[in-house]
Amino acid sequence: MLVNGIWQEKWQPVQAQDEQGRFIRQTSTFRHWITPDGASGPTGRGGFKAEAGRYHLYVAYICPWASRTLMARRLKGLEAMIGVTVVNPRLTDQGWQFGGFPGADEDPLHDSRYLHELYTRADPQVSGRATVPVLWDKQTGAIVNNESADILRMLNSAFSHLVDQGPNLYPEALAAEIESLNRDIYTDLNNGVYQAGFASSQPAYEEAYGKIFTRLDALEARLGDGRPYLFGDVLTETDIRLFVTLVRFDAAYHGLFKCNRNTLNAMPALHAYLHRILALDGISETVDLDHIKAGYYSIKALNPSGIVPVGPRH
Length: 314
Ligand SMILES: N[C@@H](CCC(=O)N[C@@H](CS)C(=O)NCC(=O)O)C(=O)O
Known about the structure:
Keywords: Transferase. The chain is of the alpha+beta class. The chain contains 9 helices and 6 strands.
């Protein structure tokens, strides 16, 4: 991680913990918003007007948070508006690296070697983790935002006057229900799997494991009434937020993170839901199982041998 703009060599991919051994997720540093006219959004400062070709997304296919933004970019038809660069799935002691793995890109904008160089380019005094996703502004050389929940929401609406495509991922009429289910899915699943995987005590692990499978059982029942998506016929941002965890479940969380009561194959409604979303136009291209497995299984603290399991293949 970075402290006052200096990369810390003793960086460990295991994140902060509380006194009971529970994993604690760090907060994001850059919180500006792209808006149709450049006015400021709910957080951060203004000056980031929606314009074709001005912004660039840095992502990792391994990363569920980054994948949210890739999915939104695809669903909203923004590929021609916003470029994408995919980092190497294996975290190094310098954090995310460009190139050096099939499907990983070099940095097309600054020829950086590591992602943290973008953070210090944007703010020479920055402190914090150099995480993906990063939404970069080519015009001012700034990081607009590195919080996937914000990016997902701004991609839904900021460019609609330029490209009118895809579902409204955040319909006003569902806002309260979306916020509430987002919270449950984040706590129990998106972050819950990391809490299971990075727990450093038996009770912390079991607490996370319990939350994960209670939530999966509830979602299996919810989808069991035949609805295609969580809120019925329309796909929302909540579906994206659930999908990114489900699509990694059997390949990474079941084995490496010990979320192993069952695989998702054993939950028919969730399994069908996962494949329904995967079959949407362009979505399978936002998922790369080789990156996902290589990335998660390169976490030395959890898998010292670095051996990557052969299965599952899809
Ligand atoms: N709050 C961030 C979290 C992003 C995040 O944790 N990304 C991970 C990859 S899955 C990362 O870049 N980790 C590197 C690090 O923590 O140094 C978001 O949702 O955008």
